[in-house]
Structure formats: C-alpha cells, structure tokens
UniProtKB/TrEMBL annotation:
Biased composition regions of type Polar residues, renumbered to the chain: 59-69
One matching Pfam family: KGG
Region listing for Disordered, in residue ranges: 1-97
Top-level taxonomic group: Bacteria
Record's compositionally biased regions (Gly residues): 78-97
PANTHER family xref list: CONIDIATION-SPECIFIC PROTEIN 10 (EUROFUNG) (PTHR36569:SF5), PTHR36569
Name of the featured protein: General stress protein YciG
Length: 97
C-alpha cells in the first residue's frame, strides 16, 4: 500500500527521511571511532594493517580477484557506476582509464 509521499511505500526508516536529516545523521558516522583509528589518510601503516586483516579473513580459495583480473576490473566498473549514480557516459573496456 503506497503512500502519497513522493512515491515512497513507507514512512519509516532512514531511506524515508528527507535528505537534510539523512545527511545530519550520516555526518555523525565516524564520531564514535577514536581519531587515531579513523584517519587512514594520515596513517598509511594503519590502513595497510586493516587491509591485511581483511585479506586474511577471506579463505585463499575465495580470493578470486587475485586470480582473475578481468573479474576485478568488472567489479570496479560496477562499483564506479553505482557510486556515481549512473551519471555521465559509460566507458567501454580500456576507455577513460
């Protein structure tokens, strides 16, 4: 049963909030993390260790990107398209790199 509020089907939850309220809440996301733990750009060693931990949590048999570069490239393209909301022209393989 759809409401008449901008085509939304529910008036509950984060997605139903107006954009300003979402931004206000999202901007607080890192506040609970100590500054020395949240700043990978200022501490490359911390970033590298976090990456190693993440890599160790995946079994070697499931690390398909390391064995299949084209799969990794495709995933990267999908991620870029998703994060940019489908804006702009889509580049084919090897274009726009």
């Amino acid at each position: 049963m759809a409401s008449k509020d901008n085509g939304r089907t529910s008036n509950r939850g984060f997605a139903s909030m107006d954009r300003d309220r979402q931004r206000q809440i999202a901007s607080k996301g890192g506040e609970s993390v100590p500054a020395d733990k949240r700043s990978f750009s200022k501490n490359p060693e911390l970033a590298a260790e976090a990456g190693r931990k993440g890599g160790r949590s995946v079994p070697a048999s499931s690390r398909s990107f390391s064995r299949n570069p084209s799969l990794a490239a495709e995933a990267g393209r999908k991620g870029g398209q998703a994060s940019h909301g489908g804006r702009g022209a889509t580049a084919g393989p090897g274009e726009g790199d």
